[in-house]
Amino acid sequence: MDLTARPGRILLAISVLIPVIVLGFVAFQKARIYAQGVEVRFPIDGYDPRDIIAGHYLIYRVDYGTDAVCAENDMPARYGASAGDPVCLCLTDVSEVPPANYEYTCEEKPDSDCVAVLKGRCERGRFTAGLERYYINEGKAEELDRIVRQGNSRIVVKIDRSGEALVHSLETP
Prior knowledge:
This protein is of the alpha+beta class. Helix content is 29%, strand content 35%. Strands 1, 2, 3, 8, 9 and 10 form a six-stranded antiparallel sheet that branches. Strands 5-4-6-7 form a four-stranded antiparallel sheet. This is GDYXXLXY protein.
């Protein structure tokens, strides 16, 4: 295919612009959550696996304060949902760690006492919201691994109005 021909140039421009536009949109969404999201803290404990391809990151268990939400395998069925459907947590007091909350299906409208809503899923008896991984600098991996294993660490999360969240930072003692 001759890229100097007019149709070739158009295809080349489109193939370059589409990934740039998609990456720009993703960056904009993350920046919007970061700027407008409600700040919430969750306790964590975990470990630091080393993946040659993915690099250094902490994978941790987040204490959402929801032991009963997904402990029973019929949780989605209780609400007329099927396994794998989104489950939402209504966070009523974000000053507590973990925040006070209760669960409901995401199709329902949350009560007015919800300060923030966190979307997630029940997976293997645990509530997960996609916040369970934190990428770190290779030079700090060993130190952070040791600190997180000792306990009393937290993640600071920003949650937007639609329930989407991102990890803002990691707090260690």
